[in-house]
Amino acid sequence: MRIVADENIPLLESFFGDMGNIRQVPGRTMSADDVKDADILLVRSVTRVNEALLGDSRVRFVGTCTIGTDHIDQDWLGSAGIAFSAAPGCNANSVAEYVLSVISLRAEKLCLDDWTDLSVGIVGAGNVGGELAHKLDRLGFDVVVCDPPLAEQSDEDDDRYSTLEEALKCDVVTLHTPLVRDGDHPTYHLIDESRLALLGRDQLLINTSRGEVIDTSALIRRLSEANPPTVALDVWENEPRINPELVEQAWLATPHIAGYSLEGKVQGSEMIYHALSRFMGLPVRKKAGQFLPEPALSKLSFTSAANEMDAAWVAIRSCCDPRRDDARLRRTLSLSADERGQAFDRLRRQYPVRREFSSLKIQLKGTSKSAQDTFRALGFKIKM
What local confidence, expressed as pLDDT, does residue 383 receive? Predict the structure, then answer.
């Protein structure tokens, strides 16, 4: 059996090597010629999977090791009798940790003694937004959640969901919607000129969902006007040929890596391995934990002299510090348009190993119960 796979999928040989002969190709440039003799196709979000790619192939199973599916023409796959599986929620924790790190940087910039003084509006409460809301709630933040599709499915007296306008009033507004172009609740250019006008200088807008959820032209204009919001962007319209002017105007700019923790990527591979095993009628014998290496940093220790917030932020940024990714992306701005696009993909392909909070053991000596609760809520392992 022949398997064609995006070269950026981790642990391909470990999970799929005994299922067939694997050919790795760049996901962005994957062509019909690359897959015409394949039985199985494994992709990430940069590959458009449709009739143009697979119409003349013998592929019978497509797996995307990502939570998003807007790059997959599922209707055509169904009509062609091709099985499909995605990895919903695989990197939800990774994205949530990225957002928490960005919020910590914002609180530090504002010289806040307590980061929970910031209210957070979450737009989209699926796997990622739901995970983030859970963590923020445990930490004591005031959280406003907007998700019209989920609100419609809930009881009339369910007060968990608010309107988009209410979410846009928060100190931090973070976007976690899928990209939906049609239907009752489209998200394409959801954050348009009129909604950007509602955001002001004291607010932070974070986007880790899809670049097209924000109208780039409108955002560039808004950032050039009086009292603009601060923006932290991990996703962009027209990736990988992103707008350099928007990068320059953003407070934090990263190359679509919020979900790129090692745990998140490996879990995506594991979920598709399980789906493919079921499709082929094979037993599931492998788990991600078998392949995760020892983390480079395994323990941090804090004494009673440590300030709770400072200690939490040190721990957070020892695992995820978006400022490093921001610096790497900004170094590409002097390149030509074609070179910038290639560099954007290269930053993702060669992304340094990033481990999640759960990989790090926090030793607390004489610290308060509040500090212990904070580290537990963040997801760190605690050693007293």
Answer: 85
Residues 57-108 pLDDT 10s: 999 999 999 988 989 999 999 999 999 999 999 999 999 999 999 999 999 9
Please tell me the predicted confidence (pLDDT) of residue 157: 66
Residues 135 and 80 in one domain: no
Is 98 found in the same domain as 171?
yes
Q: Are residues 227 and 368 in the same domain?
A: no
Check whether residue 127 and residue 199 sit in a common domain: yes
- Annotated catalytic residue, options 44, 210, 348, 355: 210
CA 14 to chain centre: 24
Query: Which among 198, 59, 207 has a CA at the least distance from the CA of 122?
Result: 207
CATH of the domain at 247: 3.40.50.720
Mean pLDDT of 363-371: 90
As beta bridge partners, residue 313 has none
Domain that holds residue 40: 2-86+261-290
Listed residue (33, 51, 55, 30) closest to 42, CA to CA:
30
Catalytic residue from among 106, 176, 195, 256: 256
Note whether 180 and 243 are same-domain residues: yes
Contacts for 101-104 with beta carbons within 8 Å, 24 or more apart?
101/316, 101/317, 101/320, 101/321, 101/322, 102/204, 102/206, 102/232, 102/252, 102/322, 103/172, 103/204, 104/312, 104/313, 104/316, 104/317
Examine the residue annotation and report whether 71 is marked as an active-site residue of this protein: no
306, 369 in Cβ contact below 8 A? no
State the chain's mean pLDDT as an integer.
96
> What are all long-range contacts of 21-30, with beta carbons under 8 Å and residues at least 24 apart?
26/345, 28/240, 28/345, 30/4, 30/6
Residue 152 known to be catalytic: no
Does residue 185 have a pLDDT over 70?
yes
Instruction: Please check the confidence at residue 354 and state whether its pLDDT lies above 90.
Output: yes
Nearest of 199, 203, 175 to residue 118 by alpha carbon: 203
**Of 212, 237, 239, 308, which one is the catalytic site residue?**
239
User: Does 210 qualify as catalytic in the annotation?
Assistant: yes
According to DSSP, residue 154 is labeled S
